[in-house]
């Protein structure tokens, strides 16, 4: 009997792709609905390498414009552009990172933006803007309006509230309004550094940069000579009047604005339309995404890394005091070997403990865990957490009790014990004796970096097509990597570098078990 012909072989693939799109959209909206406010802000954090690029761009731009004495729109400014910006066809041949240039116009009394459509509106008396002051930015001193505080309070009203970004300049797309959050900046002080302002004698301002309770540095800035008490009071009254008008439904001229009423069905249609647009833009941009962009998405903030550091420190202090044998393993060991830290795009810590001491370890848990297949599962927890895996040993070998876990952990005792001490999140933690041999056996090629396949923060596994594997050398300009050099006596010199910048070096001793094995092999030859 002749079998029926399949006319559209790609239809099956298309259906699978559409199904995965629906799953991704559902998971994305579900996780976003229960996302913490600080998680919304962390998404747009740039890496150290990107901030260095912006710092160099700003420095070069200011040096060039100051040398040419440019403070307003002039023909001299165009020579700094690679292409003719007056040509409409040449305006799109650029890529992120870039500098936005906005022009201002001035007369004898006022300064205002030439872009009348730009919001918030920039229009101030000259004495609030000139003479320009010098403010810190990206480690530089850059020109800024004379009375920066008054200008910002007039434009943005409440400076104590932080709003997440509404536009991605890297991708050139705007985010829907429902994806932005506005929270008190005090909520984010444990994750981002913030400046605290104190007015001192003579009108000087003491600006102190703090990260949580930790003071990073302080500096004193002079007052603005053109801003006096009367003008400051008048500007504050004008800003308050404008706020009252907008709150009551009037525009700046006092004319009542038309009210827009939305029915529930219209809102649902708008939301569904925005979801479809977001899915399309997300898939389109992902298809043309650079490899380093895939890795940068999951980089944790300084505050999160401090939490992990405290957790790891507390865990090993408690287990060592109780005589429990534990050491870092899997991705955490790989991060220590390759970055002297957690893997930059990873979000969990893997620790392996002796299965015979499991009962001792249980008392460190707040609730009684359910143990299944050698792995501790608990439902009443939230990220961040530590993954605990148990190992079994005999007189000759050590292996993981999790027989289903990959990559497989099974080694002779001399490759694991005695435990060594390796750097991790600024600490010295226990690790297998011959870390390099263990990792090369488990992961084979350590010169390639693979993006994460699972988000422990939201407990979601990523599809295989969303992961990338690239040579680690391609990421050396964005993340610090360790370079290993074997020196005299089998010692290893480990140097941490970010691009061409050497951060530090340390020397680690060889593993006694490996040295003895090598000596025996040499004698046999």
TrEMBL record:
<feature type="domain" description="LicD/FKTN/FKRP nucleotidyltransferase">
    <location>
        <begin position="319"/>
        <end position="368"/>
    </location>
</feature>
<feature type="transmembrane region" description="Helical">
    <location>
        <begin position="266"/>
        <end position="287"/>
    </location>
</feature>
<feature type="transmembrane region" description="Helical">
    <location>
        <begin position="12"/>
        <end position="33"/>
    </location>
</feature>
<keyword id="KW-0472">Membrane</keyword>
<keyword id="KW-0812">Transmembrane</keyword>
<dbReference type="InterPro" id="IPR007074">
    <property type="entry name" value="LicD/FKTN/FKRP_NTP_transf"/>
</dbReference>
<protein>
    <recommendedName>
        <fullName>LicD/FKTN/FKRP nucleotidyltransferase domain-containing protein</fullName>
    </recommendedName>
</protein>
<feature type="transmembrane region" description="Helical">
    <location>
        <begin position="314"/>
        <end position="333"/>
    </location>
</feature>
<dbReference type="Pfam" id="PF04991">
    <property type="entry name" value="LicD"/>
</dbReference>
<dbReference type="GO" id="GO:0009100">
    <property type="term" value="P:glycoprotein metabolic process"/>
</dbReference>
<dbReference type="InterPro" id="IPR052613">
    <property type="entry name" value="LicD_transferase"/>
</dbReference>
<keyword id="KW-1133">Transmembrane helix</keyword>
